[in-house]
Amino acid sequence: MSSLRFGTDVYAQRLKAAAEATAAAGLAGLVITPGYDLRYLLGSRAQTFERLTALVVPGIGGQERSDPGRGSGDPTIVVPRMELAALKESAVLELGLSVRDWVDGEDPYRLVADALGGASGPIATAVTDSMPALHLLPLADVLGVVPVLATDVLRRLRMIKDAAEIDALRKAGAAIDRVHARVPEFLVPGRTEADVAADIARAIVDEGHSEVAFIIVGSGPNGADPHHECSDRVLQDGDVVVVDIGGPYDPGYNSDSTRTYSIGTPEPEVARRYSVLQEAQRAAVAAVRPGVTAEQVDAAARDVLAAAGLAEAFVHRTGHGIGLSVHEEPYIVAGNDIPLQEGMAFSVEPGIYFPGQWGARIEDIVVVTADGVMSVNERPHDLVVV
User: Which residues, including other chains, have CB under 8 Å from residue 205's CB and lie 6 or more apart?
Assistant: First the structure.
């Protein structure tokens, strides 16, 4: 998608759903400062500065308040006048939202309270969990109550991807697949992990991503560290190399895919253990469908590895949700009994790690469909010999 955001109708629906969820939660309203939640609701890429920018969505009672100056019950943007031009990059103007701009010397937190309809006291207001204390504390002072986190209000909205989001994730997945197709040419003995990472970074952008979010090139013993990035270690014949890469693809939805490579023919024991990992990843993907819980998908991968005596080698959760943020809900982990629903998108990425020796991981992004699962990644899962 070439634009920086979706069409106005998408954001209008999201804003309506957020207002309904806010009222249903019995909240006075939502106050959303710049970050992923604001980007989700308005397509805004505004940044947080010392001057407050916030989307205010009134909740209970908001629609009934009509006292002039106390908020109409409609969503409002509170923004420094010097930042007004940035609104043109979001859906604010097309949506016709009320804009309350302010200049230095005015109290923007009072404007937020007014936009909430003057709500204060025992009725809680929810704020995005990325709001800095710089703004949270004075807002709490004006409201007379410490706000609660908006996580529970917004997480279900963001967990269930709409058609436009799924299309964006598919395009991001196809782009990172094209990068992985080029990785073997970069894995040459004598080069460093950092050399390879630099080539991958250029390829990520060349294949349509707006930027690089992360690159892991873990060769040999470094592959046994799941969150190793890259180093000056020189690639050698016989190395197993974990390559985990991703980034945002317009309009900001992320790719995230891991494949494992072998420089030269792998040792038989490496090949045997890797084949078990392939089976575990297939089992977890096959378990995905509406109604299955997140922890059941985690168990599907874990049980295969445990049966082969590799339980202790799998040291992290099986997956994480993805969208505007690389890591978001739902988390595919033991203890998370949330039932999967159509539209949820997350990684399935079991791994095995042998400290001081080598590691391997296979990762796809999948989307829950009406009757099963769809993967946005299509690269083979074999241990690629280069």
Answer: 211, 212, 247
